Amino acid sequence: MNEFEVIARYFRRSPRSADVRIGIGDDGAVIVSRPGSELVVTVDMLVEGRHFAANADPEGIGHKTLAVNLSDLAAMGALPRFALLAGALPSSDPQWIAAFMRGFDALATRYDVELIGGDTTRGPRTLCVTAIGEVPAGAAITRSGARVGDVVYVSGTFGDAALALAIEAGRVPAQAHERSSLEHRLDRPEPRVALGIGLRGIASAALDVSDGLTGDLGHILDASGVGATIDLAAVPCGDVMHSLLDGNARAVALQALLAGGDDYELCFTARPAMRERIAALARTLALPLTPIGVVTAEPGLVVRDERGETLSPLPRAFDHFG
Ligand code: ADP
Ligand code: MG
Question: Residue 235's Cα: distance from chain center in Å?
Fold first, then answer.
C-alpha cells in the first residue's frame, strides 16, 4: 500500500458530528466553534523503544496513544471532542495498522471523540495524537489554583503500572494472576474523563499523573506557589503493592507508588468545604477519591511515612532528560 491507500483504508472516515464541517481529506479540518465555550488542546507522543517495546500489542498502543491525551483533557476538566493522529511507521504493515486503529477507535467511540485529521510518514515508529476538548468559558481547571489549607486528593490507585514494569524487569516477584491485572493498568490506562468534568467548580487545581505522584504533585505546588504534606499510608494502592510495601521489596514498591509513571489518575486540590461534593462524585462515578494530604504555605513536598516521619530522600520521578 502507498501512503494514500493507507490513509484511505485506515484513517479516512466521514464526519460524524455536525460540528465537523470538513474532516479528513482536505489540507485542514474545519470545526464549528460553539459560543460560550473554549477549546483545550493537547498533544502527546509515544515512541517505540521509549514508551512501548517493539513487540508490544498494537491494539494496546492504539488505546494508549489516545488515552494519554484524553487523560490530559480530563485533567483540565474538558469534554473530549476531536483528535488528530500523526504516525511515523517503519512500513505500511496492514495488520499492525489495523490492530492499532482497533484500539484507537474503540476508545474514541466510547468517549465520542472524532478523528478529523493527521499525518502519515515513514520512520521509526512514533505515534502522536493531538486532542481537542471543550469547556464552558473560564471553567478549565489549571495547575495554578491550589491554596494553603486545600486538601490534596487522588483518584483510583497508584503504582500498579510501574510495578508491572518492575516485575517484567525481574526486580520484584509476582504470581501470574497478579501480573495480568498490573499489566492491564500499564497497557490500557482509563482516562478519568467523567471525573475531570465533574471536578469543574470543585477542584482548585488538577493534573493527571503520568510521571509519578510526587513529581507531578510538585508541578501543582510550583505553579500555585505553595507546598504540601502528604501521608504515605493514605496513598491508595492495590493488594500487590500493599504486600510489597510490607515486605523486603519495599524500596522498589515505594519507588513505583510515589514516582512510578503511567498511573493516569488525577491528582487535585480542593477547599475542605468541598468534601461532601467530592464524596458524592466518588459515589456517582464508582471511583475512589482519596484525601492524601494538605496544601501548606511552606514550599516543597513533605511525605510522612507510616510512623509519621519525613520520608527522605523522596524517590525520583521519571524525566526523559534526567
Ligand atoms: P497534506 O499533504 O496536505 O498534509 P496529507 O496527504 O498528508 O495532506 O493527508 C491527507 C488527508 O489525510 C488530510 O486531511 C490529513 O489530515 C489526513 N490524514 C493523513 N494521515 C492521517 C492519519 N494518520 N490519521 C488521520 N488522518 C490522516
Ligand atoms: Mg496540504
Answer: 17
The pLDDT score that the predictor gives to residue 256 is 95
Give Cα separations from 288 to 46, 68, 220, 229, 292 (angstroms).
28, 20, 21, 20, 12
SS3 content of the chain, % helix, strand, coil (to 5): 35, 25, 35
Q: Is the CB of 15 under 6 A from ligand 1?
A: no
The Cα-based distances of 28 to 3, 15, 22, 24, 237 in angstroms read: 17, 13, 8, 8, 44
* Position in ligand 1 atom list of the atom nearest CA 3: 6
- Three-state DSSP at 311 gives coil
For 262-281, how does the pLDDT look when each residue is reduced to its tens digit (9 = 90+)? 999 999 999 999 999 999 99
Residue partners of 248: CB distance under 8 A and separation at least 6:
none
- Pick from 120, 115, 142, 119: which is nearest to 131 by CA? 115
Q: Does residue 163 have its Cβ closer than 6 Å to ligand 1?
A: no
Secondary structure (H, E, C), 29-49: CEECCCCCEEEEEEEEEEEEC
Give the closest residue to 235 by CA, choosing from 162, 318, 322.
Answer: 162
In angstroms, the Cα distances linking 100 to 63, 108, 148, 250, 297 are 8, 12, 45, 36, 46
The CA 129 to ligand 2 mean position distance, Å, reads 18
80 ligand 1 Cβ < 6 A: no
Helices (H) and strands (E) in the chain, counts: 10, 12
For residue 62 and ligand 1, the question of a CB distance below 6 A is answered with no
Span from the CA of 27 to the centroid of ligand 2 (angstroms): 4
3-class SS of residue 291: strand
pLDDT, one tens digit per residue, over 17-26 is 999 999 999 9
Identify which of 44, 95, 103 has the alpha carbon closest to the alpha carbon of residue 74.
44
Yes or no: say if 57 and 98 are a contact pair by the CB < 8 Å rule. no
